[in-house]
Specification:
Length: about 100
């Protein structure tokens, strides 16, 4: 029983909502190049669940953005997502916009 993944752009922020996992990420994957263009912040606060496939997509989105000339930060990282980031040693890649640099 998966909740769907939804997303929207607000200025330079990409808002992700719902569940980001292997069962829900295909739509976002198909639009990733266009959606990430000009994004400075990826807001993950409204994600209820992220699995390792979803985390891989977040890393990939950041790398696409870097190739396009920007390095987005992530807003609203939950404790569960932070644990996954730490488990995979991605703290230098999935950087929180909520923390002081």
């Amino acid at each position: 029983m998966h909740e769907s993944l939804r997303w929207e752009r607000e200025a330079s922020t990409l808002l992700l909502k719902g569940e980001l996992d292997r069962d829900t990420l295909m739509g976002l994957w198909q639009q990733r190049e266009t959606l990430i263009r000009g994004v400075e912040t990826i807001d993950v606060a409204a994600l209820n669940r992220v699995d390792s496939s979803g985390l891989a997509l977040l890393v990939h989105l950041r790398e696409i953005a870097r190739a396009q000339g920007s390095t987005p930060r992530f807003a609203g990282i939950s404790d569960k997502l932070q644990s996954l980031i730490t488990l995979y040693n991605l703290q230098q890649i999935i950087v929180s916009a909520d923390k002081s640099a």
